[in-house]
Design brief:
Helix content is 0%, strand content 58%. It has 185 residues and is mainly beta. The protein folds into 2 domains: 4-102; 112-184, Immunoglobulin-like, CATH 2.60.40. The strands form 4 sheets. Strands 1-2-3-4 form a 4-stranded antiparallel sheet, with no helix packed on it. The two termini are 15 Å apart.
């Protein structure tokens, strides 16, 4: 398994009692896919929430950070799912960890991360502490439901599936849902 590597850009923003930690993460070499990560900690440095931005492939680089008057933060950067021709992005993140504005059609800010992608056998999921997963659904390219998981939300076994592209739908207990393309090698 590849080591997870972090790269920080102006990593700490202090807003009264809260601290925002902004960084980029990748697994393997520095040419591997890179995602933007934002965390909010309280004054005791306890994690309140964690959000990921960027597709499973490509490179998402932070170029600037700032606090906003409403208790949130603003991130600027560049990237896209393909490593060539990066597009600029602007994320306005509210104090409760949601994206209130984005400048492009890239994947939204997520309260979870799924990796590795592409996957050989076991897809792993990591969730922010402020969300609770309720169900995972795996679909093929024709939209057929292949698998539903109502527990064990940290892994999805893809070992016996043929190589190809799948859609993972993550449903949270608060009713929100997200979809991600997952490539099985």
């Amino acid at each position: 398994m590849n080591e997870e590597c972090l790269y920080a850009w102006e990593p700490l923003l202090i807003n009264g009692e809260d601290v925002y930690l902004c960084y980029m993460v990748y697994k393997g070499t520095s040419s591997s896919p890179m995602r933007t990560v934002v965390c909010k900690l309280d004054s005791g440095l306890n994690l309140k929430w964690k959000r990921w931005y960027g597709a499973a492939s490509g490179r998402y680089i932070i170029t600037g950070t700032a606090l906003t008057g409403d208790g949130g933060c603003l991130l600027t950067g560049e990237g896209n799912a393909a490593t060539s021709n990066p597009s600029p992005y602007v994320l306005k993140i509210t104090a409760d960890g949601y994206c209130s504005m984005k400048e492009n059609s890239e994947p939204p800010l997520r309260p979870y991360n799924c990796y590795p992608n592409p996957v050989e056998d076991m897809l792993r999921l990591e969730y922010s502490p402020d969300v609770t997963p309720g169900q995972l659904e795996l679909y093929d390219l024709q939209g057929r439901l292949l698998r539903t998981q109502n527990s064990s939300f940290e892994t999805v076994n893809m070992e016996n599936l043929p190589a190809g592209t799948y859609t993972l739908r993550v449903l949270l207990e608060d009713g929100t849902s997200y979809s991600d393309k997952v490539v099985k090698q």
